[in-house]
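Hey team,

Filing this mostly as a record. A colleague (T.K.) asked me to run one chain through the structure pipeline before their review meeting, and I want the input and output archived in the tracker in case anyone asks later how it was produced. No errors, nothing strange. Just documentation.

Input sequence:
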Amino acid sequence: MIELIPAIDIIEGKCVRLTKGDYDTKKVYGDPLEMARQFEELGMRRLHVVDLDGAKSKHVVNIAVLKAITTHTNLIVDFGGGVKSDDDLEKAFDAGAAMVTAGSIAITDPDRYLYWLEKYGAERLVLGADVREGKVSINGWKEDSDVQLEDFLSRYIMSGTKHVLCTEICRDGTLAGPAVDLYQSIMRRYPDCHLIASGGVGSTEDILALDRAGIPAVVFGKAFYEGKIDMKRLLAGRETEN
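Output structure:
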């Protein structure tokens, strides 16, 4: 069964969701810690936490929220958003993150990303590949680079990256369905990559379609908050496999 990874995006200490990365579309869903506890009670094992304030300001902001979640739950947390320096990375790990997602830095300072990969290992670093019209976007999706997704993935997977979180920006928060074809094409080229699909999940069927397509993991948020995912059905499938 595909790995299920709920997402908590944070602005000003609150759990929110955006549509297509547009901060003006912010919808608040409550307290991040309470949401994390709810996910844990449902049987989730892992959580994706995004510091949207950090992504926008280019440095980690909501570190206290991360610390609260890792202190008061047993979830395996991967954290991203604003991780642009050694200090940012250390803050995230010190606050209890098991893994850190870094994407913009891999575009703006490739040597630093590769240094982190060597120092912390491929199991603790997730490559964030946020894509819009085939090119990688950075800094909270506010800027588009001229780097093609294919070239981006090739460079870093060949350098040892194992975990890739790929978000199709134009679908994120729309509930319109994930970019299954894109994720399948990545898996065909890199069959050993632990690919995490993100963006567009709008239903239980969307997650099952990714599972059938052989995608290792999926991040979802808005679909859960809007009551469009049958967690019991998904978790029953996971238990059957075990």
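Quick notes for T.K.: The longest helix spans residues 32-42. The chain has eleven helices and twelve strands.
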